[in-house]
Specification:
With 102 residues, the chain is mainly α. The chain is built from three helices and two strands; from the N terminus they run E-H-H-H-E. The two termini are 15 Å apart.
Length: 102
C-alpha cells in the first residue's frame, strides 16, 4: 500500500473561518463556518483523497473523507467531528496506509 501524505505545515494558517479554539461538534447535515473550517483543514491531506469544496455543507463527500481521516488516526469511524477529530484535523498524521475508499 502507498501512504497518503498530509501537508507538513499546519493547514490552520490557511483556514480562518473560525478560531482554532472553536471546536464545536459537527455532524452530517450541519452547515456553517465551523463546517468550512473542517473542510479547509481536511484539504491539507495530499495524495488520493479528494479536495472538498469549502462551501460550509457537511454532505456525503465530506462524511466519507472525515471517516477515512478518523480511521487513519485510530479514532472511531463515526463521521462526527468533535474534540479528538478536531485535534487530528489541526495536526494530521504525515502518512496513512489505509486506502481511500472508492
Amino acid at each position: 500500500m502507498v501512504p497518503h501524505a498530509a501537508a507538513a505545515a499546519p493547514a490552520s494558517a490557511a483556514c480562518s473561518y473560525v478560531s482554532s479554539d472553536f471546536r464545536t461538534t459537527i455532524t452530517y447535515g450541519d452547515t456553517g463556518a465551523a463546517v468550512r473550517q473542517a473542510q479547509c483543514l481536511s484539504n491539507a491531506w495530499g495524495g488520493r483523497p479528494p479536495k472538498l469544496a469549502v462551501d460550509g455543507v457537511y454532505d456525503t463527500g465530506m462524511l466519507k473523507k472525515i471517516e477515512w481521516i478518523q480511521v487513519c488516526h485510530g479514532l472511531p469511524q463515526s463521521g462526527v467531528i468533535e474534540g479528538r477529530t478536531w485535534q487530528v484535523l489541526y495536526h494530521p498524521a504525515l502518512d496513512c496506509y489505509v486506502p481511500y475508499p472508492s
